[in-house]
Every structure is written in C-alpha cells, then in structure tokens.
Write a structure and sequence with these properties.
With 152 residues, the chain is of the alpha+beta class. It folds into 2 domains: 7-86, Electron transport complex subunit B, putative Fe-S cluster (3-methyladenine DNA Glycosylase II, Chain A, domain 3, Orthogonal Bundle); 93-151, Alpha-Beta Plaits (2-Layer Sandwich). It is built from 5 helices and 6 strands; from the N terminus they run E-E-H-H-H-E-H-E-E-H-E. The chain has helices spanning 17-29, 43-51, 64-75, 107-111, 138-141, and strands at residues 7-9, 14-16, 93-97, 117-118, 126-127, 147-151. The strands form 3 sheets. A two-stranded antiparallel ribbon has the order 1-2. A two-stranded antiparallel sheet has the order 3-6. Helix 1 (17-29) crosses helix 2 (43-51) and helix 1 packs antiparallel against helix 3 (64-75). Residues 1-13 have low confidence and may be disordered.
C-alpha cells in the first residue's frame, strides 16, 4: 500500500496536504502587502508557486533580503538576495489621503487589495491605518495625487 497524500481544496485546484502545509508556512513569512511585485496576484499565490517549485525565493521586494533568506531556509534551497529589478525594499509605509485634495472618485478603494480605504462616491476617503499594507497600489490609481505614503 502506497502512502498517498490526501488532496485539500485550494482556491485554484486540489493540492497535496504537504504542499498546502508548506504553502501556509511560506505565506506566513511573506509581508502580506498583496502588492504584486512578485509577479503574482498576492502573497498566497506566490507562496503556492514557491511550494510547487514554480517560483524562486527572490521575488518579494517588501520582504527584502531577510525575507528571501527565511523563505530559502523553509524550502531548503540556497539563499538569494531579493531581485532588485522587481522593486525597492523600503521600511513599512501606510497610505494617507490628503483630505483637502480628495474628490471622492473611489479609484483608490477599487485599487486597494486589502480593503483598507473607506469612503463613498463624491465623499472624502480615509485609510484605515492598521489594515494598510503599504503596497502603494492606491497611489497611481488616484487621478488627483491626493495619496501620500508615510512611515507606518
């Protein structure tokens, strides 16, 4: 009798339990910015790709070199510095809406991958600081440049 791994549901397909466990460990090490700089639609898809051997440990600028080393340790692969071509490692930042300039267009709300921005159409928007991951995806979405990034 062979030892077969039981599949567990994931959002994209059925993956073996060991891969799901590894994915969870890798995902916990990632900064959860959901910024997409890694080339994936967020931290979990990147973790899944690493667990399946489809992505390297060097894709996450927000995690920096320390993050890449931690991912390599878990995967048992040689450590690599993060790929600087994907972006710059920076200290934790949060978005702030400059109230006087906000026109209430809701484009920043639509761009935020973690729903950290609240507000209504034609109303001033606000960033909920504890939810903001500092991904900066709201900044280019704003047509009036009323979002600034400040240290977290």
């Amino acid at each position: 009798m062979r030892n077969e791994q039981k599949p567990v549901p994931s959002h994209s397909s059925l993956i073996p339990v060991a891969t799901a466990d590894l994915t969870e460990r890798l995902d916990r090490l990632l900064p959860q910015t959901q910024c997409g700089q890694c080339g994936f639609d967020g931290c979990l898809p990147y973790a899944q790709a690493m667990a399946c051997g489809e992505a390297g440990v060097d894709h996450c600028p927000p995690g920096g070199d320390d993050g890449a080393r931690a991912l390599a340790r878990v995967l048992g692969v040689p450590p690599l510095p993060y790929d600087r071509a994907r972006g710059t490692h920076k200290p934790a930042m949060v978005a702030v809406v400059v109230e006087a300039d906000c026109i209430g267009c809701t484009k920043c709300i639509q761009a935020c991958p973690v729903d950290a921005i609240i507000g209504g159409a034609k109303q001033m928007h606000v960033v909920i600081d504890p939810l903001c991951t500092g991904c900066e995806l709201c900044v280019p979405a704003c047509p009036v440049d009323c979002i600034v990034m400040e240290p977290g």
